Amino acid sequence: MDTAVQTPTDEVLMLAYADGDSDAFSELYARHRARLFHYLLGQLRDRPLAEELFQDVWQKMIHARAGWKPDAAFSTWLFRIAHNRLNDHWRAARHRPAAPADADERTASLADTCTPELLADEQAQRLQLRQALAELPPEQQEVVILRLEQELSLEEIGQITGVGRETVKSRLRYAMDKLRARLSE
C-alpha cells in the first residue's frame, strides 16, 4: 500500500484558497514568491519598486481568487497579472527607468566563494550581460527573462504577454541574436 502523500498542484491549491483555505495561499506564496520577485526585479532593476509591484501582484491575485478558473496553469495566470501590472507601471511612468547609479558597485560587491579571479570574471560577464539585456527593446527583454530565468515555455510566455507562440519565438530569436552580437564585441 502506497502511503506517500502527494503534493497538491498549484491549481488544486488555488481552488482551495478560493474556497477559503488560507494554508493553500501560504503554500502558493512559498512556491512562487522567489520566481515572481526575480521576474519583477529583472524587469524593473529597482529593488524597492520591484518589492512594491510584487505586493501589488499578490494583492491582485487575492482580490481575483473567487473568479479564478483553472483554464491555464496557476503560474501562467500569476505571471500574467505581473505582466499586466508592469504594463500599468510603464504606462504611468511613460519611460523605462535607467539602471541605478550604483549598479556597478552593487554588481562588484556580490559575495561569492570562488577565487578572486573567477569572481571578477563572472562579475564582468554578468555586468556585460545585464548591460546588453538593458539595450534590448522591452518586449524582447521580457521574453528573455521569462524563458531563461523563469524557465517558462513559449506557450506560457505567450499567455503571459498576450501574444502568439510564434511572436514569442521571434522575439526570443531576435533578442538572442542581439545579445550574442553584443557579447562577442
TrEMBL record:
Start and end residues of each RNA polymerase sigma-70 region domain: 28-94, 132-181
Gene Ontology BP annotations: DNA-templated transcription initiation
Range of residues in the leader sequence: none
A Pfam family assignment: Sigma70_r2
SUPFAM superfamilies: Sigma2 domain of RNA polymerase sigma factors, Sigma3 and sigma4 domains of RNA polymerase sigma factors
One GO molecular-function entry: DNA binding
Keywords: DNA-binding, Sigma factor, Transcription, Transcription regulation
Superkingdom of the source species: Bacteria
Gene3D superfamilies the UniProt entry points to: 1.10.1740.10, Winged helix-like DNA-binding domain superfamily/Winged helix DNA-binding domain (1.10.10.10)
Keyword Transcription attached: yes
Claim: DNA-binding is one of the keywords in the record: yes
Record-stated family: Belongs to the sigma-70 factor family. ECF subfamily.
Name under which the protein is recorded: RNA polymerase sigma factor
Naturally occurring in which organism (per UniProt): Stenotrophomonas terrae
